[in-house]
Amino acid sequence: MSPLRFLTIVVYIGYLVNVGLLFVVVPWSQAWGLMLTMCPTRMAAVLGLPWVRGLLSAFGALHLLLVLWELLHPTLLTPPQAMAKESQDVSGS
Fold first, then answer.
1. Beta strands of 1-93 (E only): which ranges?
2. Contact in structure between 14 and 66 (CB atoms under 8 Å)
3. How confident is the model at residue 72, as a pLDDT?
4. What pTM does this model have?
5. In this predicted structure, what is the pLDDT of residue 93?
6. Cα separation, 75 vs 73, whole angstroms
7. 71: CB partners within 8 A, 6+ apart
8. I need a surface site. Which of 23, 39, 61, 72 has the fewest CB within 10 A?
9. Measuring CA to CA, how many Å separate 31 from each of 27, 84, 89?
10. Helices (H) and strands (E) in the chain, counts
11. What pLDDT, in 10s, does the model give residues 7-51?
């Protein structure tokens, strides 16, 4: 595996974990209320709704599920040549 590919994988997984945790935790923390005080009134009213907070948390949970999927089915770690060979083996059968 090349160093660039490894770095890409690390950055991608790091992004998914950080954004996932951010969106799961922040909408339900005190920081969310502070952020809403800096938003325009109508935007703060919408972002303060529980279902909007839940939607944002679900978006974060989706990111965390993508991390879990990548750990269980490591498509990023498989070299492109091996994936091409697998697809040829399946289509050739």
1. none
2. no
3. 86
4. 0.75
5. 57
6. 6
7. none
8. 72
9. 8, 47, 52
10. 5, 0
11. 888 899 999 999 999 999 999 999 999 999 999 999 999 999 999
